[in-house]
Amino acid sequence: MAQIGLRRFRYGEYHVNSNGVEYYTTPATLAGAISSSVSLNIAEAKLHADDVLKDKVTEFTDGTITLGIDEDDDAIFSPLLGQSTENYTVGTGQSAKTTTVYKSNVDDVPKYVGFGQVVPKRIAGVKKWKVEWFPKVQFKPFHVDANTKADSLEFGTPSIEGACFANKNGDWRKRATFDTEDEANTFLDSLFVAEPSA
User: Fold this and answer.
1) What Cα–Cα distance (Å) separates residue 102 from each residue in 48, 66, 72?
2) In the chain, where are the structural domains located?
3) According to the model, what pLDDT value does residue 55 have?
4) What is the pTM of this model?
């Protein structure tokens, strides 16, 4: 198996209703996908008896997901980071123009989201599409570095990091591989289960 690309960063806000049922808002595109890496924290315990290893337990505790994206759209990321907005008006009369200002505050509380991606790959010469989905992620505040334009042009792209958690059922990841991209996209969006009707 060889991974040959990355696409379709999707997210939906994670909620738990009054009955304890987990659900998500309608999935949307987070940003253009450039890179993705996941680092897991695994707890281990070993039981020795009679001078030999009798048992070993490994268990997911949490993880970190780092995403390279093409655009850090404040209209998307500011609400996810629990930030507030205010309006700023430039000019007067008919030439007045209102701009949204996104405020970062020490009391901001980032929201939990479900996050998924599609990874094209090749298996025995045949193209497949793998879905990787994390049911509960909380992104951290970030800042994008900037550099002056020099003799050669290069793109500066943002990187964001989030903490991965297990959901109420103890699930922390789902994966599946499909024959077509449409099947993978449909499956990915189906994981963002809507709030059940009353």
Assistant:
1) 55, 23, 13
2) 2-83+109-190
3) 85
4) 0.85
